[in-house]
Every structure is written in C-alpha cells, then in structure tokens.
Write a structure and sequence with these properties.
- The chain has about 425 residues and is mostly helical.
- It has one domain (about 50-420).
- The chain has helices spanning about 1-10, 15-30, 40-45, 55-65, 70-80, 90-105, 105-125, 130-140, 150-160, 165-170, 170-190, 200-230, 235-255, 265-295, 295-310, 310-325, 330-350, 355-365, 375-385, 390-410, 415-420.
- The radius of gyration is 21 Å and the shape is globular.
- The chain starts with a helix and ends with a helix.
C-alpha cells in the first residue's frame, strides 16, 4: 500500500517515470530488507543486452531520415496519392505517419516529424487546428506498431519472443489501423463539412503520383530492405538497425545531400538524449520488476487473473481494459517492461500465441500514447503546434473510438497478426 501511495503521489507531482520506478523500487526493497547493492546490479544487468543495441541505432536512423529531407518527400507522396479525396489532407496526414513509421521506429519521432507541416496544411483546408493536431498525434502512434518499432524491440527482449517475428506481425495490423483512420477522417470531414476539393483529371493525378513516387522511392526502399533482410535471414533485427543508419546516411547525405556536416552534431545529440531516456526507463523498470518479484506481487496478480478470467476471451478482454487504464498514466516502455513478464506467461497458459499476444500488447500501449494525462504524442503535438491538450481532447474521442474498435478486431482475429509468419 505504501508503494502504491508513493507511486500515485509521484505521478501526480509529474516526476519522470524512471525516477518514479526507481523510488518505488527502493521502497519495496526496504520493506523486504534487501541490500541496496541490488540496485546497480539489476540496472546494469538489464542494460547489458545485445538486443538493446537496436535502440540507439533506430533512433539515429530516424533522426537522419528526418533531417535528410525524407519527411518532405513522404508528405508530397501522400498528398499526391489521396489529396484529391474529400478529407484528403487529413488522409494524407495519416499516410505520411504510416510512411514515416516505416523508418523512425518511434511514435514520438513520427508525431514530431509530421505535425509541423501537416497541421498547418490541414488548417488551410478548413480543419480546426485542434482536430489536425489530434489526428497527427493519433497517426503518430503507428510508429510503435509499423516495423521497425522500438516498443517491439523492448517487448521481444523482456518477453523472450522473436523481434523479427514481431516486426513481420506488425505489418498487417499497422496497415489496418492506418487505413481505418483514413476512412474515419474522410467521413469526419464530410460530416463536419470541411476539406473541400476540386476534382483532378486522372491523367494529372497519375503524373503527380508518378513524380512524387519517383522522388521518394529511395525513402520507401528502407523498410523493404530492413524487413526483407530480417525475413530472409540475411541479418537480425538488431543488425538491421545498423543497416538502417548506413542507409539513412547514404540517402540523406550522399544522394539527397540535405544533411550538412554541421548538422551532425545536433543529430547525434538528439539521438543520444532520446537513447538515454529510453535506457533510463529500461534500467529502472527492470529494477522495479525485480522489486515486485521478490515481494511476490506478480504471482499474486497472476493468481488473481486466473481466478477471475474463465477463459482466453475473458482474459484478453481484461488485458485490454488493464492496458488501456495503465496507458493513461504510465509511459509505453515502462508498461511493457513491468507488465509483459507478468502477462506473457499467463497468456501462454491459455494457449494464446506469444506473437499474437505481443501485437495485442503493442497496440494497446500505442493507444496509451494518446490517452491523457501522460499522452506523449499529444504533448509533442501540443509543443509543435501550440494547441493545448485540452483543446485536442474532444476531436481525439472520434479517432480514439476507431482505435479501440481496431484493437478489439486485432485481439480476436489472430490471423491479422499471424498471416505473414
């Protein structure tokens, strides 16, 4: 009870999540009389992992792509593809998020890269600014679902499942969620009567699309190379992160020539800061998991779920509700590191495929990125666009409903996650 009270107080006081987990761990260890030498031991052991090397490289690859003119080309492609539709600018925003997700590995990076350009473009088409900001924040969550994905790397590490298989499993759910958001924003624009467009002759549309595709072809090749290499066994998911950095460097610096040497200092600094934040969360979440384990809380939690859940359907419904609630006040990576080791074995006991359960978990924590009060994507969209989180809440509800329906479909249609494996 003391630990729970401490956590609630610290979260309410807006203490960073890694510090919250560290302080709560100390409370739990003190209650058990455990020597505090366990603190550096567990943090170091958690970070001493080959798979975690993927984190800094995917972060660096995403920043290289963002600085190398990739975002602008992908926006032009998405606009050429669907800009002629009623609601096409909103649809183009979602498609841009989908394209950028295939190379950023990060939900927050996707939101930051797209919001600055697409929200003003949507505003010019008649979208209220809060609606545009909310849509980009929601579309940005695809950065956690469409491979390569940092949350998938962390989940595969802590749940002991293949990261490459998770990457492949994320393709269809990511496309499904993205296309459902495209349909939703087109319907929303028609109902609210904005984003009027003039019909474009087919020949003009085709020429614009071919031009935009040719201009962005090298950017679109990156996910093909990464996923193709993993799928064929040429390299592992961790090695693929290094390939992504090399490819990002070659495209952005040597071919597009939009990254100048003086910009590398900023790119490396931003990548180092983001990597440091991720590693702090990973290290202290592992410590928190250790503290929970020696207090036998995971075992108690597992028995409680087993008693309440009468079968796999009830269990999955409970997991969805639990992760939705937890996602409102806990950061995605922390949620994965704390709950995946607890819920994964229980899911296996019900005969649920570990890759399918991993996708259910990832999709749920991605929703947590847009559910207040934590809502990292909303915070980023707010900082980039100047729209308050409160103003984004109302339009967010429409898209959040779509995400919840999508999550239930992914949960109870395993083929959507497993068809490509």
């Amino acid at each position: 009870m003391l630990t729970f009270s401490t956590m609630v107080f610290l979260l309410t006081a807006a203490v960073p999540i890694f510090a919250v987990m560290g302080i709560c761990s100390l409370v739990l260890l003190h209650q058990q009389g455990t020597d505090f030498i366990a603190v550096p031991q567990n943090v170091f052991e958690a970070l001493d992992s080959f798979a975690l090397l993927a984190v800094p490289f995917y972060v660096l690859a995403g920043n290289l792509m963002k600085a190398g003119g990739i975002s602008r080309r992908l926006i032009a492609l998405a606009t050429a593809l669907v800009g002629w539709l009623r609601g096409g600018m909103g649809a183009a925003s979602v498609l841009t998020c989908m394209f950028f997700s295939t190379m950023s590995g990060s939900s927050s990076a996707t939101t930051a890269a797209v919001a600055g350009t697409m929200v003003p473009a949507m505003e010019n088409k008649g979208y209220p600014k809060p609606t545009g900001a909310a849509l980009v924040a929601v579309g940005g969550e695809l950065g956690a679902i469409i491979p390569p994905s940092l949350p998938m790397v962390i989940y595969g590490l802590v749940a002991n499942v293949s990261i490459g298989s998770l990457f492949i499993a994320g393709i269809l759910p990511g496309l499904f969620i993205g296309l459902s958001l495209v349909v939703a924003v087109c319907v929303y624009a028609r109902v609210k009567d904005f984003d009027h467009v003039e019909r474009v002759p087919f020949g003009t549309w085709l020429r614009n699309l071919v031009r935009a595709t040719a201009d962005s072809l090298l950017a679109l090749m990156m996910p093909v190379i990464i996923l193709g290499g993993i799928y064929t066994g040429v390299f592992t998911a961790t090695e693929a992160s290094v390939v992504a950095v090399v490819y990002g460097f070659v495209v952005g610096v040597l071919i597009y020539k939009e990254v100048r040497l003086r910009e590398f200092v900023q790119i490396f600094c931003e990548s180092a800061v983001m990597t440091g934040m991720v590693m702090l969360i990973v290290g202290f979440a592992a410590l928190f998991g250790f503290a929970l384990t020696i207090n036998q809380l995971p075992q108690y939690f597992g028995h409680l779920i087993a008693e309440v859940a009468s079968g796999p359907v009830m269990f999955l419904l409970m997991v969805n509700v639990l992760l939705f609630v937890v996602g409102t006040f806990m950061e995605a990576l922390a949620t994965i590191l704390i709950l995946a080791p607890i819920l994964g074995p229980i899911a296996a006991s019900y005969g649920i495929d570990p890759i399918h359960f991993g996708m259910i978990f990832i999709v749920n924590v991605a929703i947590g990125m847009v559910t207040p009060p934590v809502a990292i994507n909303l915070n980023i969209a707010s900082q980039v666009t100047g729209v308050s989180m409160d103003a984004m809440t109302r339009p967010l509800l429409v898209f959040l409903f779509v995400l919840i329906v999508d999550t239930l479909i992914i949960t109870f249609v395993p083929a959507l996650s497993l068809a490509l494996l």
